[in-house]
User: What shape does this take?
Amino acid sequence: MRRAVFLDRDGTINIEKEYLYKIADFEFIPGAQEAIRLLNRAGYFVVVVTNQSGVARGYYTEDDVLHLHRHIDRELEQYGAHVDAWLYCPHHPSGRGSYALPCRCRKPLPGMLQEAAGRFDIDLDRSTMIGDKLADIEAGYAAGCRTILVLTGYGANDQHDVGSRTIICDDLLSAVKHQIDYFNQV
Assistant: This one.
């Protein structure tokens, strides 16, 4: 089984912008491309797990989400980096139509992490969830992963709500460096 690093998207990889789906509005958080490249070189399977309730709310479509993810992939290629898998939750309890349903995938539930583990032979006990919200950390806990909160995005607001077993880092790059150092010591 392989070890993975699960990454939240908005506020962790890219600058937080409410309901981001337009390529023109996308901006990497400084150091994010290098961080993902370091994970690739260290042999981690990189999985992005992102809540995209804008789909359920009718702000944009699933095709818009996929289009933005393809754009991010192309941008990362220029840095010698890549994401191995993209998973997203389009649901929200107050959404519309078929998206307004109880689901297992919306963080803080661990459904996306568990789905990735099943599909890609990931050992959740040897994996880490990195995100900027308490919901990311709770999803990581529920899946049995190590957790790291970054202070970008909403992380500065949520840092006092995470438990003592969660590592807190300034940004994705510092989180990844910590992750790699940690696993080199164990």
Notes: Residues 62-77 form the longest helix (16 residues). The chain has one domain: 6-132+140-185.
